[in-house]
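Re: [help] complex structure
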Amino acid sequence: MADLSRRLAAEALGTAMLVATVVGSGIMADRLSDDVAVSLLGNTIPTGAILFVLITILGPISGAHFNPAVTMVFALRKELETSAILPYVLAQILGGIAGTLIAHAMFELPIFQLSETARTGSAQWTAEAVATFGLLLTILGGLQARPKAVPMLVGLYITAAYWFTASTSFANPAVAIARSLTNTFAGIRPVDLTGFILAQVAGALIAAALATWLFAERRNVNPPLASEGTDRP
Amino acid sequence: MADLSRRLAAEALGTAMLVATVVGSGIMADRLSDDVAVSLLGNTIPTGAILFVLITILGPISGAHFNPAVTMVFALRKELETSAILPYVLAQILGGIAGTLIAHAMFELPIFQLSETARTGSAQWTAEAVATFGLLLTILGGLQARPKAVPMLVGLYITAAYWFTASTSFANPAVAIARSLTNTFAGIRPVDLTGFILAQVAGALIAAALATWLFAERRNVNPPLASEGTDRP
Amino acid sequence: MADLSRRLAAEALGTAMLVATVVGSGIMADRLSDDVAVSLLGNTIPTGAILFVLITILGPISGAHFNPAVTMVFALRKELETSAILPYVLAQILGGIAGTLIAHAMFELPIFQLSETARTGSAQWTAEAVATFGLLLTILGGLQARPKAVPMLVGLYITAAYWFTASTSFANPAVAIARSLTNTFAGIRPVDLTGFILAQVAGALIAAALATWLFAERRNVNPPLASEGTDRP
Amino acid sequence: MADLSRRLAAEALGTAMLVATVVGSGIMADRLSDDVAVSLLGNTIPTGAILFVLITILGPISGAHFNPAVTMVFALRKELETSAILPYVLAQILGGIAGTLIAHAMFELPIFQLSETARTGSAQWTAEAVATFGLLLTILGGLQARPKAVPMLVGLYITAAYWFTASTSFANPAVAIARSLTNTFAGIRPVDLTGFILAQVAGALIAAALATWLFAERRNVNPPLASEGTDRP
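Output below.
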């Protein structure tokens, strides 16, 4: 296992680059287009792409959580030592905030901002719960079915979730906090954070419970669309 | 083999998430853009992405059919036990309907709706037959040539079929039924279901017959663009 | 080796589905948008996606050429028996034409058409030569470096070439002939075919000559970005 | 190891095709759309796609640097012989310039141009440093974690970086020089090259230093999102 300092550096660096991508591509896309769907495409494609990159290169060091909800579920599953939980979450939150600040610096915007974008109400909370449920199911199912595909699975899951959830799928408390500090395309009002984070935690816990049953003792069935065997020679 | 309850849960859950993506991203894309091609991109990319995810993580449990036409073909090929056919199809239909309702909840729309979008006539039926023919050929050919690529093959096939078929490629009776219950971008009038489903079944059967001949006793040819061997060392 | 009848069926079927995608998605994209770049995106993404699918599932049967320029190069390299050349090319041409007709049927257009879109002149011919040069280099280099990646390589190469060549990269005589029979987004005037096909053949021959030198006796170098070894354990 | 002449040919050819794609798709996208975000999508997707192709097919010959900043870092790491540094960089610069000229020829533009697009100031330089930092981190981390994924990692990293950096991520001195010779979408004023190149070198050196610590002596941790083991059977 890598020593804790490198693991925390990987969590902070990965969350920073993830947030810089989410916020930066949101600014770029919003500036360049009057069509909000085009802007969302310009926000979605980079986010999915960078997730593949970051999880692939940093996964072997820290597990590439970048997300307190993911860290929480791994701790509950006894797959992360208890003493690492708080440092992981702090590294994610601080890294995420740094990502927002870097995006502002690159786009010549005031470094410190507070978002004024309202994202609240039961429909939004439902969306966040669904989004985080799906994210954890993707991770836990992917680790069971095909671990090497997890970076691609998470990247493509978030690509989809940006569009099928009404909240554009934050699905990550650390990223939500970082996004409250930018008054741009990707922002969320600080006052709306509590509802989002509670919904995310709820979605993650439901997924963890379901996964324990659904992905346990898996054996091959016929006919599998996604065979786990090797390609036929 | 996973027990039947988990297999049915996987079929219902997978079809629900697939339909929530199709319907939800359709609503999102339609709201955000006046350019229908942009909206279709915002509907296509999430659908292809989520198919890769769902087939990868749920394939080892249930086979990841999510589609009565696929279940029918596997049953005809004796690769699914007869007693599982009806439960599979019911799980798919109920899961699909749940997906529509969840999408409505997330987007603050009336939960129960009926589509008013007309999709009928011989050109549309031809399109659905072609779409489902291609889907089954992709699955059966992929299982023969490179089983681990099936999630990617299905995701990319549907990505293409959304655009090259005039019907945007439903290619799935359970998804068609679920989409009749939303009066949004992805909807289809309930009265048009019969034509769509018959065309889908016809396309699937033609593909199954062709595949039996085309993909039988395959051996290597030279020069293969898609070598089945391992990468050269 | 699969018997010749199945190989020819694979070539015809693959070229038909490729052309149906190119022509069909062009019609769909053109109808739905006033922004030509959006239409080209709606034409590009499906084409790249279906190439991955078709080469993966049909490659083991026929080699998945779908392209007389590719067949010509493999014949020159003695990797295709001489007696198969003419049947392959005929299957590709007839399959391609069928693809155009199927697209017209699905979109309720007159089945038989002639394109009126002018595509001629030295800049267009340069573009076609460059496009086909790059395609053959991709195939021959990919077969040497990583055969299992060829379907993805060809799909992504064409995705790029649609945009970086002024001709939108036909790069395929059979597809060019089929596209002369549709007066829609993807069409080309029949009178312009000769220039396109000659340029394509020239580009293919130059790539074949270069590849013989460039990809011969390849051994590992340090530091390889694209290692051919297995992932490290 | 391939002989030096082939390695240099691969570097020149690869950089030429990369620049032809960047410049050519920029011209195409800019001509076809009034929406700059759509144009950037039409520039981004081809660039990411061609990077996957070029690194896959040319990586085994030359390492597929295509970038003096990458060559510099490999030389510092003693993974490239000193005598090859200057030839590599010259091949990249000359290849890149050829790529710009080929793009102009294909699009019937004056072959020799100078860009008038201003790209300067501390925000742009910060963006270039961040972009090149991320590129080198992706390459060095990818080589450590999963060498076969490097072509996909670089393609997707650049896909993201086009959007999250205010400079659209040149991240490559040879490509920057080549882009100074086109007064089109992708151009940069020659006078602005110095600032860009210095920022790129700075970002690359910081990444190299960080990588030496972060990616050293890596061992498995639990729970890894990106497992390095084989898929479970």
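Residues 218-224, 227-233 of chain D have pLDDT under 50 and may be disordered.
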